């Protein structure tokens, strides 16, 4: 990152990060700086995978600018919607929004969509160091390219519990050419190759060798390293559909961070990363410095359209001792088979809390347990996803305003079901495929400790069960464990990890399995909890949590300027 300062008293910085220039002003406030950004959201024509697309971007850039701040800083982002026909919002993924639930960026939940031509100020404090990102949370705008990185550093004078000499940031995404089930490209920092392969000479493929000079929009961003140095690679996945695997030829990766939380370091050849997750890994440049090496990202958990041809994105790890134009002498790493779930589970279960970090263990018990059955269903003839047979449909008045002003007719006040029928067969298609729609809310008492059991099941027809990464807004949760088949309360809870459970904000449920989470309802607000596969969310795969909304103060009037809260003035 290179910083260019304006006049000595202007407080204006032009931050150059991976080629993106962002205008930012900095002021001081108690406990940290205020960093002001101006974001213009608009459609643009770009060639991120060597083919021309209409994508969403910010300030003329795709992906959006990287935000970098320190713990305790306040971010003030003036977001102007320059789309002509649709609203927009941005969710700051992994930021807990303590005291600012209206800034979470979830349309119909925490705020109204920002209308074309309007400007909305997101103002919130970043309270924990880590690797995060931001993305659109309205319609399918994440799939359209509305995303960017958000990195929070430790305060000056504090050090990470691991050493590194340099740093890279990789934001992974997918790009669709026709629909969410056909013709996909994978992008690394917004760059990929659809109609050619960087490694065509080394692999079995029908694609020609890419003939890139390096200045193209789709040319890969190369990671340049010095021999014997150790590098932190921050990796986030904002994919709309794909689960991914990342590997670097001949190099080991040591995982040290997951979703902004330190984990007990462990070393692997490759990592699985699901939509909504973020990691930091350490790589030491300890291989032959007269060679370059492949960095490969491939699709997992979904059968390839062409047998034995896994969709991949590639770039190079370049030792600075040789030219970056020299290709590796061997093929890229082979992505593990798409349905090798045992391998995926083995990686996921290695993630435990760092025993030397200050993060607390989970409370020894919970006050309440909610079991959420994930099923594919029919609603009025359409294929939907449902939780305990209810497919989520969002109201026109944001939940935050409805709770704050005790509006009883804006959403279903009947609590949603907290379990499913014990006789439900998770290993076969549903006997009754029909589900209902709903928008009820799970309401918790302040500081209530809640267990959530995510239960997977068979798809609507045929045999099969998909992987689902679930993301919780406003909180981190402890991952207590994973299991096979149907969750059995008396038996399986004895297996919970109550000593080294990792804190996460996104957790996966594997096919025909369950995942147990525990969190403390200690952040007043209304929060989404949903599958981070974007089409699944918009087909109803989510629930709403609320806690202590009466304690929230100073909600900006613009956040609730729609529906039945449109004329309430400033919301205190």
Automatic annotation (TrEMBL):
Catalysed conversion reaction: 4 L-ascorbate + O2 = 4 monodehydro-L-ascorbate radical + 2 H2O
SUPFAM superfamilies noted in UniProt: Cupredoxins
Cellular compartments annotated: Secreted
Xref: PROSITE patterns: MULTICOPPER_OXIDASE1, MULTICOPPER_OXIDASE2
Top-level taxon in the UniProt lineage: Eukaryota
A Pfam family of this chain: Cu-oxidase
Enzyme Commission identifier(s): 1.10.3.3
Enzyme class name: oxidoreductase
Family listed: Belongs to the multicopper oxidase family.
Complexes and interactors: Dimer.
Record-given protein name: L-ascorbate oxidase
């Amino acid at each position: 990152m290179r910083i260019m300062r304006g006049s000595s008293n202007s407080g204006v910085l032009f931050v150059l990060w991976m080629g993106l220039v962002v205008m930012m002003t900095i002021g001081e406030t108690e406990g940290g700086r205020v960093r002001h950004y101006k974001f213009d959201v608009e459609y643009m024509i770009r060639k991120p995978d060597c083919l021309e697309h209409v994508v969403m971007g910010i300030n003329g850039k795709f992906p959006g600018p990287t935000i970098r701040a320190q713990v305790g800083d306040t971010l003030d982002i003036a977001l102007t919607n320059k789309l002509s026909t649709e609203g927009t919002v941005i969710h700051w993924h992994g930021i807990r929004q303590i005291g600012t639930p209206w800034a979470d960026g979830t349309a119909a939940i925490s705020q109204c969509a920002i209308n074309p031509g309007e400007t909305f100020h997101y103002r919130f404090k970043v309270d924990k160091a880590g690797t995060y990102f931001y993305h659109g949370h309205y319609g399918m705008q994440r799939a359209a390219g509305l995303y960017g990185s958000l990195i929070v550093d430790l305060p000056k004078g504090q050090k990470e519990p691991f050493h590194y000499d340099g740093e890279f940031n990789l934001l992974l995404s997918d790009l669709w050419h026709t629909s969410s089930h056909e013709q996909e490209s994978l992008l690394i920092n917004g760059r990929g190759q659809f109609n050619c392969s960087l490694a065509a000479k080394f692999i079995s493929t029908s694609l020609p060798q890419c003939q890139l000079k390096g200045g193209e929009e789709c040319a890969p961003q190369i990671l340049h390293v010095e021999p014997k140095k150790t590098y932190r690679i921050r990796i986030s996945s904002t994919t709309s559909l794909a689960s991914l695997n990342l590997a670097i030829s001949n190099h080991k990766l040591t995982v040290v961070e997951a979703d902004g939380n330190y984990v007990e370091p462990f070393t692997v050849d490759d990592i699985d990363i699901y939509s909504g997750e973020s990691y930091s890994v350490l790589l030491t440049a300890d291989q032959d410095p007269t060679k370059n090496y492949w960095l490969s990202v491939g699709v997992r958990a979904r059968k390839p359209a062409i047998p034995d041809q896994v969709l991949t994105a590639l770039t190079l790890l370049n030792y600075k001792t040789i030219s970056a134009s020299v290709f590796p002498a061997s093929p890229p790493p082979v992505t593990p088979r798409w349905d090798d779930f045992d391998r995926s589970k083995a990686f996921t279960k290695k993630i435990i809390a760092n025993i030397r970090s200050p993060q607390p263990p989970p409370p020894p018990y919970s006050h309440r347990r909610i079991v959420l059955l994930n099923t594919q269903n029919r609603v009025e003839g359409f294929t939907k996803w449902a939780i305990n047979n209810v497919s989520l449909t969002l109201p026109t008045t944001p939940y935050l305003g409805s709770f704050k002003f005790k509006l009883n007719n804006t959403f279903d006040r009947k609590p949603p079901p907290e379990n499913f029928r014990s006789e439900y067969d998770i290993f076969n298609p549903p006997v009754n495929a029909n589900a209902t729609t709903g928008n009820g809310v799970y309401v918790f008492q302040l500081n209530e400790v809640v267990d959530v059991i995510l239960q997977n099941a068979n798809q609507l027809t045929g045999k099969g069960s998909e992987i689902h990464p679930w993301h919780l807004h406003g909180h981190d949760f402890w991952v207590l464990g994973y299991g096979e088949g149907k969750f059995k309360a008396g038996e399986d809870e004895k297996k919970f990890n109550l000593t080294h459970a990792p804190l996460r904000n996104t957790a996966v449920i594997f096919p025909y399995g369950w995942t147990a989470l525990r969190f403390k309802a200690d952040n007043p607000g209304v929060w989404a909890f949903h599958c981070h596969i974007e089409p699944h969310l918009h087909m109803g795969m989510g629930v709403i949590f609320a806690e202590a909304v009466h304690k929230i103060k100073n909600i900006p009037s613009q956040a609730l300027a729609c529906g039945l809260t449109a004329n309430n003035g400033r919301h205190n």
